Amino acid sequence: MSVNPESPVYPVHSIDNSVGVNKREYFAAYALQGLLAGGQPVETAAHLAIKLADALIRELNIQEDADTLVRELDKQHKG
After folding, report:
1. CB atoms closer than 10 angstroms to residue 15
2. d(CA 70, CA 59)
3. 77 by DSSP, 3-state: which?
4. Three-state SS string across 11-76, please?
5. CA angle 50, 55, 56 (to 5 degrees)
6. Among 6, 36, 35, which Cα is nearest to 21's?
7. Per-residue pLDDT tens for 17-67?
8. CB contact set of 40 (below 8 Å; sequence gap of 6+)
9. Taking the domains of the chain in order of start, what are their residue ranges?
10. pTM
11. Residues 32, 45: contact at Cβ < 8 Å?
12. Using CA atoms, how far apart are residues 70 and 4, in angstroms rounded to an integer?
């Protein structure tokens, strides 16, 4: 199961079908908080936060792909 950046962090089903903040927005918000606390200008911090969120999602998916490959190799080795 890969990390879908558009899936909600805390899924909630409501009357208007809104689901709240997605994972990309959630990761970016935390990155933005850290960048602003570190003294980055707002525009720079916002741009970097989105880049960092996207990079985190890519890396999580790469790690998950690697974990899946290891499990498959283990099955082949044992089977």
Report:
1. 5
2. 16
3. helix
4. CCCCCCCCCCCEHHHHHHHHHHHHHHHCCCCHHHHHHHHHHHHHHHHHHHHHHHHHHHHHHHHHHH
5. 100
6. 6
7. 667 788 999 999 999 999 999 999 999 999 999 999 999 999 998 988 888
8. 48
9. 23-78
10. 0.71
11. yes
12. 21
Residue with tokens 């990155």: 31
Angle between helices 42-78 and 23-37 in degrees, nearest 10 = 130
Q: How many residues does the chain have?
A: 79
Range ranked top by mean pLDDT from 4-8, 18-22, 70-74? 70-74
Query: Tokens 């997605």 sit at which residue?
Result: 22
Q: Do 24 and 7 form a contact (C-beta atoms < 8 A)?
A: no
Q: Which residue has the tokens 């199961």?
A: 1
Amino acid at 35: L
Q: How far is CA 5 from CA 49, 54, 71, 74, 78, in A?
A: 14, 8, 24, 29, 35
- Can you read off the two tokens belonging to residue 77? 């080795």
